[in-house]
C-alpha cells in the first residue's frame, strides 16, 4: 500500500528520501535524529539505521514510539517487518547497562538483565576489565571508563554513563553585548538550547558528547 510519503524503507535498514517531495524537509529533520546520512546526490538521499544511531537517539530522549510513528507517517510503501523488529531490539538494548561512580577509583556497571550479566562475565574481550561482581553489577577501575565503554559498544552493548564529571575550577567568561558595529550581540536561541542540551544543568547525564551547529 502506498502512502505517497517521501521515504522508501528497505529491509537492509536503508532509507531512501526523495528530495523533490513536498515533505522532504520535515522528513530530513526527522531522520537526522536517529539515522546516519550515507550519501546525498541530487534527487535521492540515502540514510541508514544502525544500532549506534538508535542508541544516540535514545540517549537524547527520542522515544521508540516517535521513531516508529514517524516512519509510518513518512513511508511510501510501508515498513518491512524486519525493520520494525530490529529497531525495537536495538533501541531497547540501550539503558540495560548503566555506569555509576562507586568510589574515587572504581566504577559500578549496573546490569538490569541476569542473562546479560552472564554474557559480560564470560566475554573474553571484556573479562580483563572486571574487578569484581555482585548479582546485579560489575566493577571496573575508574581509569578504564572510556576503554570499557568502547569495548562494550564494540561487543554490541551500549552503556548509559551516569558517572558525571569533576566540576573543576570556575572560569569566568564575559561575552560582549555589542559587536564592532555597535549591533547588539548575544547567543541565539538555538545556541542557548545547544548549551543546555550538552550541560544538562550540571547533572550526571550531561557534560559529554559533541555539539554540531551551523556556521554563523
Description of the molecule:
The protein is of the alpha+beta class. It has 3 domains: about 5-90, no CATH class; about 95-160; about 170-215, no CATH class. The protein has 7 helices and 9 strands. The protein has helices at about 25-30, 50-60, 65-75, 80-90, 115-120, 145-155, 190-200; strands at about 5-10, 15-20, 35-40, 45-50, 95-105, 105-110, 130-135, 135-140, 160. The strands form 2 sheets. A 5-stranded mixed sheet has the order 7-8-6-5-9. β7 (about 130-135) and β8 (about 135-140) form a beta hairpin. It is flat. The termini are far apart.
Number of helices: 7
User: Cα-atom Rg, whole angstroms?
Assistant: 21 Å
Helix percent band: 25-40%
Helix and strand pattern: EEHEEHHHEEHEEHEH
How many strand segments? 9
Coarse morphology? flat
Q: What is the makeup of the main sheet?
A: 5 strands, mixed
- SS content category: alpha+beta
Beta-strand fraction estimate? 15-25%
Mean pLDDT: 91
Distance between the termini: 44 Å
- Strand ordering within the main sheet: 7-8-6-5-9
Which quaternary structure do these chains form?
single chain
Number of domains: 3
Unreliable parts: none
How are the elements arranged and paired?
Blueprint: E1 7-9, E2 14-18, H1 24-31, E3 36-39, E4 44-48, H2 51-59, H3 64-74, H4 81-92, E5 97-103, E6 106-111, H5 114-122, E7 130-134, E8 137-141, H6 145-154, E9 160-161, H7 189-199
Parallel strand pairs: 5-9
Antiparallel strand pairs: 1-2, 2-4, 3-4, 5-6, 6-8, 7-8
Please describe the structure with a list of short key phrases separated by commas or semicolons.
9 strands, alpha+beta, 5-stranded mixed beta sheet, 216 residues, 4-stranded antiparallel beta sheet, 3 domains, flat, 7 helices, single chain
